[in-house]
Specification:
- Helices cover 36% and strands 17% of the residues.
- It has 230 residues and is α/β, with parallel strands linked by helices.
- The two termini are 24 Å apart.
- α4 crosses α5.
- The strands form three sheets. It has a six-stranded parallel beta sheet with strand order 5-4-1-6-7-8. It has a two-stranded antiparallel ribbon with strand order 2-3. A two-stranded antiparallel ribbon has the order 9-10.
């Protein structure tokens, strides 16, 4: 579905939430060009076909992806640090998802967080490159021992906001993140702007944030078409 007003506000039109929790890469901004350039160089160096591996990297902590590849004779942390440095140095093509800046500007103070598998320095650099404001709460790779698809990151974000995670709305794009939101017990909206293939999920899917805003009252918020009434 590509109509944000009908797909996101529709299924959740009668539901209120206490906070919005956003994945970052592929959800608020696109960094695919940068990430895949760096990862492709690294994968070829270690004898992997990027076409086969790249679909698995999104939404997962870099260190976890490297460990899963089970490459003999390497230090996974050193390799993850190399990738992090290269991604920090290559921000070309990082840009906001359409409508994201206006949408997050409509959110109440302390009513949202970014929950990302990226490190904090990389997350901050990508947000700045995309022209997006930092969130009131950042949950990054350094904060969570077990990354997505485990629900820990979203549970922790809700805990720090002093909210019940089941009253939060999670915005995600990748299977690992969608599963994390599901496992946490949160409602989920899937952003498809960076996907070239359909995302099969029981959750509502929207391309981007154009035509959407939030309306909020007494600590509760709803997703609505721009100009919608509370």
């Amino acid at each position: 579905m590509t109509d944000p007003a009908s797909s996101a506000a529709g299924p959740y039109a009668d539901q209120s939430f206490q906070a919005c929790l956003f994945d970052m890469d592929g959800t608020l901004l696109t960094s695919i060009e940068s990430a895949e350039r760096v990862w492709s160089r690294w994968l070829r160096h270690h004898g992997f076909d990027p076409v086969e591996i790249l679909p698995r990297i999104h939404g997962v902590q870099t260190l976890e992806t490297i460990r899963r590849l089970d490459i003999p004779g390497i230090d996974p942390q050193q390799e993850a640090d190399w990738i992090a440095r290269e991604e920090l140095a290559d921000l070309a093509g990082v840009r906001a998802i359409d409508g994201a800046a206006d949408f997050v500007a409509s959110l109440p103070d302390h009513g949202w967080a970014i929950v990302t598998s990226a490190t904090r320095p990389l997350a901050e650099a990508r947000l700045e490159a995309a022209g997006l404001v930092p969130p009131p709460l950042f949950i990054t790779a350094e904060d969570i021992a077990v990354g997505k698809p485990a629900p820990d990151c979203y549970v922790e974000a809700a805990r720090r906001l002093e909210l019940n995670v089941t009253r939060c709305l999670v915005f995600e794009d990748a299977p690992a993140g969608i599963e994390a939101g599901r496992a946490a017990g949160a409602a989920v909206v899937v952003i498809t702007a960076t996907h070239s293939h359909p995302v099969v999920t029981e959750y509502p899917a929207i391309r981007d944030y154009r035509g959407l805003t939030t309306v909020h009252r007494a600590g509760e918020m709803r997703i609505a078409p721009s100009g919608g009434a509370a």
